[in-house]
Specification:
Layout lengths: L1 H9 L3 E5 L1 H5 L18 H4 L2 H6 L2 H6 L14 H11 L5 E4 L5 H5 L4 E3 L2 E8 L5 E3 H11 L13 E5 L8 H13 L2 E5 L11 H7 L3 E5 L12 E3 L2 H12 L2
Parallel strand pairs: 1-2, 1-7, 2-3, 7-8, 8-9
Antiparallel strand pairs: 4-5, 4-6
């Protein structure tokens, strides 16, 4: 990791893109993995906005553990490493494809959730707002099969981007600006297969910056990376040794 550490220290701006790989280190199953969400019955309907409006129970049943059980998970080594970089003044921001809120739980400040987030939920009828913790409490009280509903009768939907919805414009615009302005952009735990988030490191390359990739599986940008590594735990250890308190 010496070349990567050297590049971080010499960079004016460093940005990061994170994916599911950094969450699996915390014990959270990858949605597309063998035990993931997309192996469930009706998987294609869970994050589909039309199906949510027809039958929100499909989403709430499918995500009972993998979204509303997130409170039992704690940030992993990569989350902690990125916090140490930020505290050292060596990290401008994090664009993440993840919806597990672990970057914020770890203490990272500049996090751009390009696929949305369950931190807030809004009623599909009147747009009333509830926090994640409030929805969890409603689900606990309601029991199995319960759907959190507003006083008006509408179902609360998380601010996660479902299929059929546009990405959160503010978060994605900031993520694009981060990628373009970074002379070092580090890709962590994503195979860069889901667009448009997968296009972010391409913006860095087009602007003349360097891209470093740390991911167990190959990515389409491996041949364009300044360096490529496959061990996220080794990355986290090297960063914590260099920038940790």
């Amino acid at each position: 990791m010496k070349n990567l550490i050297k590049a971080i220290k010499e960079a004016r701006r460093v940005g990061v893109l994170t994916g599911a790989g950094i969450s699996t280190l915390c014990g959270i199953p990858d949605f597309r993995g063998p035990q993931g969400l997309y192996k469930q019955k009706d998987a294609e309907k869970i994050f589909d906005i039309d199906w949510f409006d027809r039958d929100p129970s499909i989403y709430y049943r499918g995500c009972a553990e993998l979204v509303y059980g997130l409170e039992k998970f704690t940030p992993g080594p990569v989350h902690k490493a990125l916090v140490s970089m930020e505290k050292a003044g060596c990290l401008e921001g994090i664009a993440t494809q993840n919806i597990d809120m672990l970057h914020q739980k770890a203490g990272s400040k500049n996090v751009y959730e390009v696929h949305g987030s369950p931190i807030l939920h809004h009623c599909r009828w009147c747009a009333d707002e509830k926090k994640f913790e409030e929805i969890c409490e409603m689900l606990r009280r309601g029991g199995e099969g319960f759907i959190p509903r507003c006083k008006c009768g509408g179902a609360y939907k998380p601010d996660i981007t479902f299929f059929g919805e546009a990405l959160p414009e503010k978060a994605f615009t900031r993520a694009q600006a981060l990628a373009i302005s970074s002379d070092v952009f580090i890709v962590l735990g994503t195979s860069l297969s889901v667009f448009p988030a997968a296009g972010l490191p391409r913006l860095t390359l087009q602007a003349g910056g360097k891209v470093f990739i740390v991911n167990a599986q190959p990515t389409p940008l491996d041949d364009y990376a300044a360096a490529r590594y496959d061990d996220l735990a080794a990355f986290a250890q090297a960063i914590l040794e260099e920038f940790g308190e």
